[in-house]
Amino acid sequence: MRQPHRILLQTTIPHIEDDWHIGRFTLLRDHLAGLRGDDGLPLFEVTARDRDPISAPDSVLSQLDTSAFDELWLFAVDTGDGLTPADCEAIGRFRQRGGGLLVTRDHMDLGSSVCTLGGVGAAHFFHSKQPEPEPSRRQADDTITTYISWPNYHSGANGDFQQIEPCLPLHPVLADPDSPDGAIRFFPAHPHEGAVGKPEHDASARVIATGRSKLSGRTFNLTVAFEPVNGQGPAIAASTFHHFADYNWDPSRGSPSFVSEPPGDALARSPEAQRSVRRYATNLALWLAGRPVV
Prior knowledge:
This protein is α/β, with parallel strands linked by helices and 294 residues long.
């Protein structure tokens, strides 16, 4: 009997109730766990957890390469100390043995511990570490929430959606046979997304989707895909974990108290955008598992 692929959804912080703990990604977890194959059996077995206390290597991440997991979706919600060297080394070995990897973060320096991840870490740009290569981009885009500095691309309010631009040739992760042009066109919006880009010397990577700031009109990268090569697993670098958070899929689910911007409701009023958001999550899980997307 076919066995489901095993996905680990993991944050880079211990459980803190008033923060972006793994319980704030429940809608994603339930969506992935509910996917079925043509045989009616689950496609994925999903484990969701926060990291152990940061005083030592995480008990799961530091042994990831010897685990039974097939994919890691890493939500880097820390302020720079969320991954130990042992965690990063094991995640690197996990990908080397063919594991699929999604790494996502947020604005400014949030999630900057991923800089030390081999390969995919180089696709993430922050404020104090590894800034965007183009100096002109090192300036605030979201000028409304003034206590958050660059990178902070404003794609819209939490709870709204943004129209994205898939880069050609269309990547399988963005394929949508049910849309008019065969491509996913909508992601959840967020007032201050982080920055990602193709690492200069990595031929396996390319930007596959861009967005446009609703404040400055500037385009920015949303997603970088790393193709599997020489046995190394596929990987995705995403500009913000808010593309996957409950609060962005449904603001009624609530957010940490430090979120100050009023949410929107455009996603709740658009069945097409809701379908697009879930299709994107489905495609990511399938592609990272090495399964056909369409």
